[in-house]
Amino acid sequence: MEEISQSMGLAMGLVRQLDQTLLAIAGLSLKVSGVAVLAASLLALPLGAWLALARFPGRQVVIAVLNGMMGLPPVVVGLLIYLLLSRAGPLGSLGILFTPAAMMIAQAVLILPIIAALSRQVIDDAWSEYREQLLSLNATRWQCMRALLWDLRFTLLTAVLAGFGRAIAEVGAVMIVGGNIDGVTRVMTTAIALETSKGDLPLALALGVVLIALVIAINTAAQLMKSYSMRRHG
Amino acid sequence: MADPAGAGAPAILPLAGSDLSWRAGDVEILREVSLRIEPGTRNIVIGPNGAGKSVLLRMLHGLLAPSGGQLAWATADPLRIRRGQAMVFQRPVMLRRTARENIEFALRVGGMREGVRAAARAALARVGLASLEDRPARLCSGGEQQRIALARAWALRPEILFLDEPTASLDPAATRAIEEIIAAMHAAGTTIVMTTHDLGQARRIADRVLFLHRGRLVEDTPAREFFQQPRSPEATAFIKGELLW
Ligand SMILES: Nc1ncnc2c1ncn2[C@@H]1O[C@H](COP(=O)(O)OP(=O)(O)OP(=O)(O)O)[C@@H](O)[C@H]1O
Ligand SMILES: [Mg+2]
């Protein structure tokens, strides 16, 4: 117990001093997960919108598979991306294994189904309300998708943030494709895992505190923005 | 108002429906409705709640495919047919944008490229809502939203306009204003197909009354005649205010 409170004290000290290592690691985490969430959203939001509006045989199966993929195990995604990017793999020539780029790809793959499935659900619900009105105005499929994505932007932000939360908190995928190289691919989660196993609890705890604070701050900001916009736009 | 049909374009009316049916599961909601909508007419569809009025309007507008029977426009050009129509729904849907942007959206989707903002402004002014231009449409009152929906339809300059109880939640002054706009659109050549539960309004507007009862078109009668003496016992009871079940 004493050790924990002592470590906690040291951890808070690191956070207060804005320790360089701490900042670098947290910064890389934000960068990797931020790029991953942007890239994934760029694909997942249109995909979700398309799937909400499209009608084709087997659609329910596709939706079920997509929903199931929300729970993809990070280590397995990491392994697949590893195989793709490793020297002998099909994308080996890129030479990006054990770089932040590989970590971004792995996280993007991991959260793409989350953002797509959640946004599909949101857009599907709205579509049943908007459908006849938009079709009456002769909106094309493409115009309907764009109108819905724009109208639901604040709700969709929640889906995007769910993806971000998952990305920044996962450890398995970035560990495998990033390698947890000090100063290069070490992010908060992999650092916590390593420091804990080494017994360096203060740094691990400090990173944990930062990680949790970050996730809470981002979600709170999103919530505030959403309720503001609901008041503003109805 | 400009010629709604557009210079030289083929007219889409008359619209002829024959034996139109619509079933939901095994319930027959519309049964063998045959009618003809002539250009320039004001057709009022009346009947008790659940008679199928909204379903009929949505079918004529092309949102519901008939499960039996046929619907034929005067032209075969699908784009003209689509763009020649507009509809104001019983519960209008507003996008999460300002009132003006809602109308601009409709105009852009309808193919307008220039003067969109001015046209949207004019439409809002037409329904007496110029001051609500920048208000988020979803925050407008129910009656205001219904007027925005009418402004949106007006801006599209349709050849035929479907209105599903457009004044259901409006105050008397707004109701008058809407009726005047409908009259003006009609005077400019727009064909009107409208439902209402306000018999006084039906009397003021209609050239012709279509009386629906349990999915059947029980009467299709010139308005003057209908309000003097309906042909069917159901309609007679209905305008006397008796409940019809
Ligand atoms: N999509 C649908 N699926 C199943 N039943 C439907 C559907 N749409 C309408 N109905 C049914 O069809 C019947 C006619 O509905 P409709 O909305 O046309 O009535 P209405 O004449 O417009 O009534 P009101 O005066 O209350 O507006 C109702 O019994 C309704 O429950
Ligand atoms: Mg109705």
Task: Tell me what the structure shows.
By secondary structure, chain A is mainly α. Chain A has one domain: MetI-like fold, CATH 1.10.3720.10. Chain A contains ten helices and no strands. Chain A has helices at 2-17, 20-53, 59-69, 74-85, 100-136, 141-151, 153-169, 172-178, 188-198, 201-233. In chain B, helix 3 (99-109) runs parallel beside helix 5 and helix 4 crosses helix 5. In chain B, the strands form two sheets. A six-stranded mixed beta sheet of chain B has the order 5-6-7-3-8-9, with helices on both faces. Chain B has a three-stranded antiparallel beta sheet with strand order 2-1-4, with helices on one face. Chain B has two domains: 15-84 and 159-239, Rossmann fold, CATH 3.40.50; 99-157. Chain B contains nine helices and nine strands. Classes of the chains: A mainly alpha (234), B alpha/beta (245). Chains A and B meet through helix 5 and helix 6 of A and strand 5 and helix 3 of B. The complex binds adenosine-5'-triphosphate (ATP) and magnesium ion.
Give me a quick take on this structure.
The complex is a heterodimer of chains A (234) and B (245). With 234 residues, chain A is mainly alpha-helical.
- Taken in chain order, the helices and strands of chain A follow as HHHHHHHHHH
Mean pLDDT of chain B: 92
CATH-assigned fold name of chain A: MetI-like fold
Global geometry of chain A: globular
The domain count of chain A comes to 1
Q: Write down how many β-strands of chain B occur, each being a DSSP E stretch of 2 or more residues.
A: 9
Structural class of the helices, strands and pairings of chain A? mainly alpha
Q: Largest inter-chain interface?
A: A-B, 18 and 25 residues
The CATH topology of the largest domain in chain B is Rossmann fold
Quote the beta fraction of chain B.
Answer: 15-25%
Number of domains of chain B: 2
CATH class assignment of the largest domain in chain B:
Alpha Beta
Query: What percent of residues of chain A adopt helix (DSSP H or I)?
Result: over 70%
Can you tell me the CATH class of chain A? Mainly Alpha
Total strand count of chain A, please? Answer: 0
Number of helices of chain B: 9
Number of helices of chain A: 10
Can you summarize the main beta sheet of chain A? none
Low-confidence stretches of chain A: none
